Amino acid sequence: APRIFSGIQPSGGLTLGNYLGALKRFVEKQDEGIETIYCMVDMHAITVWQDPAKLRQQTREGAAAFLAAGIDPARSILFNQSQVSAHAELGWIFNCIARMGWMSRMTQFKDKAGKNSENVSLGLFAYPSLMAADILAYKATHVPVGEDQKQHLELTRDIAIKFNNDYGVNFFPVVEPVIEGAATRVMSLRDGTKKMSKSDPSDQSRINLTDDADTIAKKIRKAKTDPEPLPDSLDGLKDRPEARNLVNIYAALAGHTAEQVIRDYAGAQFGTFKPALADLAVAKLEPITLEMNRLMQDPAEIDRILGQGAARAEAIARPIVDQVYDIVGMIRAP
Ligand code: TYM
């Protein structure tokens, strides 16, 4: 049977990109009745220094976003990574499987390290190997993510294959990335060639799940566009990254395809399309924001849910990691 695992870093507030590329689809998978395991990856977050109080706050806020978006802790496992030591344990084993050359080719590392790679943490370099451990500690088969995580999932496959080969076992599954829907790569509202990101210095570039209705509407009204009306076919969006981004966002929020949106708005000016998009965004996001705010009134309850999720996660991962120790040749007390 398929088993889904995915994670989100609590390294900042969640954006519309995280919602459309990940969270919304996590809920769909849960509602399809698939076994789903979702994780706030706090150990990944500290590959770049995090203020401890903020990390705690953002982990709870992320969990609140999962719940507000429709994750049901009775049907999905929801927890934070550091509570289940299997992740760190398997991460170490995978550090000994992954090759320096593989890691050096990770574009996200190169982007984050920039020119000064001498001065980033060793954890940032090893990041994708911990990510492989997240997934394979559960022998998950499918991983829903946005487009930007594709290369990391290819590495996860390489690690699983090399582990199986090195030890002559058929132990780890080769995972399938699940990158689907109209918004697998939501772009910045200020620059259609850049990904919408929680770390962009401009708050105008993104919609945060904590933004109120006015702020959302204002950001969409001010989003960068070109002067042309919307075309009558998807082809007409080819060299118009900002227009294409807004159409994709509309489609994902409405649960339509981009083709349908273009059919409905062919020839429309942005003066018409942007207010429609703002209304749609507010209608879809405001209930989530309000519910997040309500949940955040009771942080102890969020911690309790994360703790229960962690216990269920531990029960799945522990025997798998124990088998890995055995395969590798490590003595375990009987
Ligand atoms: P993170 O925290 O950067 O993002 C969480 C999820 O949101 C997606 N996403 C986007 N999708 C569409 N458009 C965007 N602009 C956008 N920005 C982010 C990401 O693709 C991701 O699915 N390495 C992961 C976290 C992770 C993980 C894992 C994921 C750790 N272990 C195991 C899956 C399985 C990350 O940094 O995601």
TrEMBL record:
Pfam families: tRNA-synt_1b (PF00579). Gene3D superfamilies: HUPs (3.40.50.620), Tyrosyl-Transfer RNA Synthetase (1.10.240.10). It comes from the Bacteria. Keywords: Aminoacyl-tRNA synthetase, ATP-binding, Cytoplasm, Ligase, Nucleotide-binding, Protein biosynthesis. One of its GO terms (molecular function) is tryptophan-tRNA ligase activity. Its EC number is 6.1.1.2. CDD domains: TrpRS_core. It catalyses: tRNA(Trp) + L-tryptophan + ATP = L-tryptophyl-tRNA(Trp) + AMP + diphosphate + H(+). A motif ('KMSKS' region) lies at residues 195-199. A motif ('HIGH' region) lies at residues 10-18. L-tryptophan binds at D134. It is found in: Cytoplasm. NCBIfam families: trpS. Belongs to the class-I aminoacyl-tRNA synthetase family. Catalyzes the attachment of tryptophan to tRNA(Trp). This is Tryptophan--tRNA ligase.
